[in-house]
Every structure is written in C-alpha cells, then in structure tokens.
Amino acid sequence: MPIYILTFACPDTRGVIHAITGALLKLEANILEQEQYSDPDSQLFFARTRFECEDTSLEKAHDVLEGPLAAFSGQMSLRREADRRRALLMVSQYDHCLVDLLYRWNNGELPIDIVGVVSNHEVCRPIAERYGIPFEFLPVTADTRREQEERLLQIVIEREVDVVVLARYMQILSDWICTELSGRVINIHHSFLPGFKGAKPYHQAHERGVKLIGATAHFVTVDLDEGPIIEQQVHRVSHREQPEQLAEIGRDIERLTLARAVRLFAEDRIFVNDHGTVVFG
C-alpha cells in the first residue's frame, strides 16, 4: 500500500488536525505517524503526518487535502515516501563525511538518491567514481566564483536536486546562491564552547583545555555559520587527548551529525521556524 508524507505549517489556530484527519478519512487512509507542535513564540503550528492509502494517486490525495487546509493560509507539502529526496554532495579535500554518506546510501541506510558530487578539488573523484556517482570539478578562485556557482545552480536545476549537502566543502557560498537555495543547503562544521575559528581549531581547543567537542549541522544562510540548526552532537574529552586525537573524535562526530541531519531532511522532519527549526524525531 503506498505511503505518503504530509507536512503542513500555518498560523496557530484551532481545527487544523481535525481538517487533516477529516480529509484522510475521506481518502480512507490509515495514519501511521502523527506529530505536531504549536510554537508559543512564533505563533505557528507545525504538523507531519505519515499515512498509507490504497488505490489513491498523489494528485487525488493532494486535491482532497488541499481543499480543507487552504482555509488556514499555510504551506503544505505532500509526497510519496518512495519518491526519495535527491541530494547533491559537495566536498573539498577532507573526505570523511563524503565517504560516510556514500556508504550509508549504498547500503540502503540513508533514504535519499545521490545524484552527483561537486568539488573544487580532484582529490575525491575516485571515491565518487567507485560508487558510480557523477563527479563535477568546479575549481573556485576570486575570478571564477560567480561562473562556478552559476554552473552549480544549473546542476541543481538539471538534476532536480532537493538538497545540497556540504560534506566538508571548504568554500564560502556567495550571498546570491545562499538566497537562491534557501532552506536547501545543509552544512557541517566543528563546534566548540568557545568557538575556535581559523586554522587548526583542534590545536586551539587543546591549548585552551576544552572539555567538550562537537559538531553542528545547519541550513546555510548569508550569515556565515549562523543558519537554523538541524542537529548537534558533543563528546566529552579531557587534557589527556592530544590535538590529533581530538581531530579524530571530531571527524566521527561530524560524520554522525551530518548523516543524522540528511536523514531528517530526507524524511521531511525539519521545519524552518524563523531563525531556528522545529525537528520531529
């Protein structure tokens, strides 16, 4: 029986769930998962419904749901669960996140379709080719940045990409393409308390006696590393770990955090809520 995922966000008011369940009853659907949240700060309501429905086309289900939900002036998304989100991976020279995502995808652990790898270096080409994934080399300089980002956007359009994953892509995207792909680019970076910027962050952390290291996955915005946070993980360390050991632990955390964020996106569990997110687990 086909399974569908419905997401809906609107100004918080009464009757939204009644409208959803009433429409699903009309479709003779069976609800498998239902999650909802009313945010007291933004005054917005968020809902995710996963349901199965026999002998119903996507178009019919959309029309039956759209009618009663139109009154709430919200944003609705509906798709078949089998129609997986299409992902484009971007990487520079550090390959640990790329390899992890490809491994999980190849083993069926990550419910996405990876449609390409883009890099500003040739280092990771053999990895992409090993998995049969198209690789595009887009070297970036001050003079070529605009041209290469226009090519990136062309790839996104041509391959019908739903999400761009910066799997340790070490170039800052220009404001115009961040705006163009708003809510569709996920980044991963190390995160410490306090935050250490620049070269050799793990050496800086070691020198300052950091006790927690971690990683943050977030949506990319024009404000560098300040986009809505999707997922974070931390690991307790001590003075005993040397910078190289901290970096090794950090790579593990980055892999896990990014994979978790991509899965949440792939399963339509993330809602952008002003500068933050609502994430259904």
Description:
The chain is an alpha/beta fold. It has two domains: 3-80, ACT domain (Alpha-Beta Plaits), CATH 3.30.70; 85-279, 3-Layer(aba) Sandwich (Rossmann fold), CATH 3.40.50. The chain is 33% helix and 31% strand. It has eight helices and 13 strands. The chain has helices at residues 16-26, 58-69, 96-106, 125-130, 145-158, 175-180, 201-208, 243-266, and strands spanning 3-11, 30-39, 44-52, 75-80, 85-91, 112-119, 135-137, 163-166, 185-192, 212-219, 229-236, 270-273, 276-279. The chain has a seven-stranded mixed sheet with strand order 7-6-5-8-9-10-11. A hairpin with a 4-residue loop joins strand 2 (30-39) and strand 3 (44-52). Helix 1 (16-26) packs antiparallel against helix 2 (58-69), helix 3 packs across helix 8 and helix 7 (201-208) crosses helix 8. 32% of the residues are buried.
For the structure shown, list the relevant keywords.
281 residues; alpha/beta; Alpha-Beta Plaits; 2 domains; seven-stranded mixed beta sheet; 13 strands; 31% strand
Summed up:
The chain has 281 residues and is of the alpha/beta class. It has helices at 16-26, 58-69, 96-106, 125-130, 145-158, 175-180, 201-208, 243-266; strands at residues 3-11, 30-39, 44-52, 75-80, 85-91, 112-119, 135-137, 163-166, 185-192, 212-219, 229-236, 270-273, 276-279. It has 2 domains: 3-80, ACT domain (Alpha-Beta Plaits), CATH 3.30.70; 85-279, Rossmann fold.
